Each structure stands twice: as structure tokens, then as C-alpha cells.
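Duplicate of #3305? Posting structure anyway:
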């Protein structure tokens, strides 16, 4: 998702139910050329690593998947040559990088690293391809699955028995780390490589589900919509892996039945985590998962305003809203390019959205210039529907711009927005109705569908 600092001024019920109830492997005839790792200009990974907890400091009670793996004597990986798909947030409960934990594991050979969007160093901008490299700290090859290839090729997997995945998700469908996992699973199953997922908390908790489901047509080869789940899906990354292996496309692994049958998935569950837990209740330290998700406030804000502030100048798509990227209010502060903040505050308060309050704030932009906007405060987590505000922002965008920013103008491309949103029907409705759209009816409809999805997805739950 793009953004900028505040400017100065299950069939019928739910499409997922059908596959719940009821791209691609490497060519065997002509293997692709193995990408040659190259050394980066500077050892970026070192600066991206979090500081471990001080020696003797009490560790959180919750054991992450990597902690459980270590406590069990690394039994799941012992005697194997492994690769690791991870990023700087891939740490144990004491803040030690999973890279280092596995490097010192007895009887385990860590032979390659794999990096998702933003890279294994965590410093690449969103939507920017990351090249292969050599990790300066370890000397290991780093293969990017957000570069020339989105799925590991046969050559990239050569020489490993298992791919270990340790990625911290944020519980929102369009955040791409779950896509990286799913596409890596497809490649591994096609090439006889075991997948071992080290589970981590869903920071929003495992009971919060919300937002539009993903249309079947939009689930094909969609890197910001790899799973046919509500926008806020309520699963851990390990539970999503179990779902992916079980389901057929769209939404499940796009591989042959034979590859699915022989594919081996091992999920190392956490110990001590409950579905009712939000991130602050885990006692774990949040490690930024990307430059714009620096803290739990941004984790909550991403599904709340990311769609409503969608901005892509290259395809002339602009709703006029901006979120507070580059300030202390990432995904929590919003402004409009042509509406004063006091007017916007009144408009937002008049919506009376359950669980939310709005107040004006001031903050400097990235160039130090003063700016104002409206901060979105969550006052009742149970009443809060994470995605609801987005759709009222879209309605307000039509009110502030009578031309209707969703209208089809020459050169305008909605495909990227639609892949994030997931609902062709809603896009058609707001194009037609503009500021007259009945957002509340859509929110109620999606809520019912999300509850049906949640009931059906319980078969994949690892925690209560």
C-alpha cells in the first residue's frame, strides 16, 4: 500500500465455504538457471536485527514456534540440510534471530536463507524487487522470493531437505508474508522439499474476523490476496499453512493432487498462546515487520485505513485521503488533500462508528513541515470492526469529490486496488452510487459472511 504524510491542508453465505467443505511447480524438462547470489554493498542485516533481551531478563511465558523447536532438541530439523524463509521479526521470545538459533543448533545444517517482500534485511521499500545476495554475517546465500521469482525455483531449493518458515504476519489478507509462505509451499511440494512452519501469534488475536472475502476470480496468482479469507482472517500463519495444504485452488495450493499428497507440512505450534490474546497481552516485544509497521498501533491501523487511503498516482487512482506514513501515526492518522482537518474530524465523528473516536492531531511531515490530520483511536476493541472505517472513507471520498473518484477515467486502472479489496461487487456499487452507497448494509453482510467463514475454519485451529 502506498501513502504519504498529512498534507498541509462459503457458497451463498460466503464463497470460501465451498472449498472449505468439499502457481506453480518448476519444469521437470528444463530447470531454470540458478540465480547467482551477489554480495550487497553493505551488511544490512546486522543493523536490522533487534536487540535481544538482556542476559538474565525474564522471558515471556509464551513460547513461539522457534522456542518450542529448540526446547524439543530441534528434533524436527535434526540431521537435515535446511533453508530458512524469514525476516528481522523472525526471532525467539528473547529476541534472538532465528537465523542464529538454527546456526548453532546441533546436528542441523542451515545452508540457505530466503527473503520475502522488504527482504531478509527488512529495509527494502514496499513493492520493490529485492535481488539475491550473500549475507555478510553468515556467508549464506540469500535467495529472494520477492525479486525475479516469487516462488523458489528448483535450483533455489537444490541441496535442502526442508524449508523452515519463520515469518511474523499481522492478520490482514493483503500483507504479503502469508503469500510468500503459500507460494513457497507450492514450490517445495512440487520438488520434494519438506515445509516446516514455526508458528507465531496473530497480533490482532485469533477471534477477530472482518471485512470482505476475496472473490474467486481475484484469488488467482494474487500476491496481495493468496487466501480466500476475510480481509482480517483471525488465523496464525501456521493455521493458514494447514488451510493451504487442505484446500484446492482458488485459495488453496495450486499444485497437482499427487504433489499435495506427497508434500510434507510440519507446523511447530506455540505454547501458552490463546486466541483471545492481542499482541500486548503476549508479553513479547514487537519487532517491526516492515518500515511502516513499527508498532502494534500500526498493526491495528493497517486493515482500518489502508484500503480507504489507497493512493497510486501511476494509474491515476487517488481517493484524496492520506495516512500518516513517515510520522508517529503510521496508519492511524488520516487527512484529505482538499478538506481541512476540523471538517474531516466532524464528518468522521458524525459516522458514530462503534469502537472508534476521532481527534485532531498535528505532526511534521517527512520534510519537517507542519501538518494536521485526524487520529483514529480504538476505544472498544470488542465492538471495533477493523475494516469498517475504510468503506466510510470511500463514501466520504465521493462526497468530497462529486465527480466520484471511483468513476472510470481515461488511464485509470483499478486492478491493484481490486486485488487488495477483494470484492468486484462492492467496487461496482460504489462506482454506481458514489456517496449514496449504503455502507452499513455492506458491513453487516460481510460480518455475517466472516462469522460463517470463522465457523468453517475452526478445523484448522491449533489453539482455543
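Output from current build:
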Amino acid at each position: 500500500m502506498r501513502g504519504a504524510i498529512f498534507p498541509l491542508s462459503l457458497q451463498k453465505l460466503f464463497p470460501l465455504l465451498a472449498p472449505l467443505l468439499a502457481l506453480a511447480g518448476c519444469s521437470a524438462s528444463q530447470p531454470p538457471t540458478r540465480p547467482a547470489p551477489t554480495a550487497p554493498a553493505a551488511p544490512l542485516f546486522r543493523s536490522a536485527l533487534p536487540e535481544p533481551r538482556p542476559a538474565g531478563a525474564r522471558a515471556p511465558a509464551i513460547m513461539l514456534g522457534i522456542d518450542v523447536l529448540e526446547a524439543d532438541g530441534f528434533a524436527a530439523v535434526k540431521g537435515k540440510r535446511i533453508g530458512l524463509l524469514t525476516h528481522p521479526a523472525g526471532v525467539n521470545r528473547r529476541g534472538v534471530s532465528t537465523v542464529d538459533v538454527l546456526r548453532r543448533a546441533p546436528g542441523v545444517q542451515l545452508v540457505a536463507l530466503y527473503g520475502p517482500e522488504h527482504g531478509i534485511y527488512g529495509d527494502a521499500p514496499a513493492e520493490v524487487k529485492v535481488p539475491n545476495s550473500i549475507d555478510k554475517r553468515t556467508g549464506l546465500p540469500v535467495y529472494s522470493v520477492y525479486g525475479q521469482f516469487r516462488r523458489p525455483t528448483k535450483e533455489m531449493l537444490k541441496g535442502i531437505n526442508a524449508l523452515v518458515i519463520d515469518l511474523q504476519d499481522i492478520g490482514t489478507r493483503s500483507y504479503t508474508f502469508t503469500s510468500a509462505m503459500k507460494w513457497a509451499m507450492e514450490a517445495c511440494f512440487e520438488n520434494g522439499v519438506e515445509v516446516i512452519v514455526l508458528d507465531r501469534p496473530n497480533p490482532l488475536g485469533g477471534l477477530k474476523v472482518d471485512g470482505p472475502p476475496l472473490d474467486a476470480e481475484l484469488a488467482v496468482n494474487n500476491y496481495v490476496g493468496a487466501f480466500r479469507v476475510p480481509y482480517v482472517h483471525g488465523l496464525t500463519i501456521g493455521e493458514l499453512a494447514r488451510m493451504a495444504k487442505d484446500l484446492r485452488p482458488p485459495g488453496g495450493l495450486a499444485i497437482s493432487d499427487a504433489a499435495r499428497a506427497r508434500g510434507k507440512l510440519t507446523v511447530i505450534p506455540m505454547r501458552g498462546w490463546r486466541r483471545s490474546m492481542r499482541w500486548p497481552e503476549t508479553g513479547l516485544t514487537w519487532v517491526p515487520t516492515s518500515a511502516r509497521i513499527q508498532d502494534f498501533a500500526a498493526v491495528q491501523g493497517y486493515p482500518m485505513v489502508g484500503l480507504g487511503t489507497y493512493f497510486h498516482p501511476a494509474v491515476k487512482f487517488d481517493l484524496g485521503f492520506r495516512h500518516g506514513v513517515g510520522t508517529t501515526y503510521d496508519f492511524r492518522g488520516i487527512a484529505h488533500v482538499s478538506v481541512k482537518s476540523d471538517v474531516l474530524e466532524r464528518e468522521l465523528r458524525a459516522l458514530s462508528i462503534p469502537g472508534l473516536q476521532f481527534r485532531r492531531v498535528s505532526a511534521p511531515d517527512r520534510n519537517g513541515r507542519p501538518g494536521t490530520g485526524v487520529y483514529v483511536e480504538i476505544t472498544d476493541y470488542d465492538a471495533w470492526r477493523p475494516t469498517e472505517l475504510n468503506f466510510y472513507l470511500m463514501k466520504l471520498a465521493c462526497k468530497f469529490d462529486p465527480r466520484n473518484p471511483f468513476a472510470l477515467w481515461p488511464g485509470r486502472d483499478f486492478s491493484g486496488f481490486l486485488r487488495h479489496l477483494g470484492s468486484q461487487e462492492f467496487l461496482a456499487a460504489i462506482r454506481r452510487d458514489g456517496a449514496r452507497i449504503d455502507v452499513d448494509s455492506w458491513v453487516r453482510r460481510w460480518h455475517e459472511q466472516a462469522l460463517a467463514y470463522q465457523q468453517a475454519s475452526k478445523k484448522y485451529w491449533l489453539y482455543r
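Confirmed duplicate; merging threads. The longest strand covers residues 356-364. Residues 439-457 form the longest helix (19 residues).
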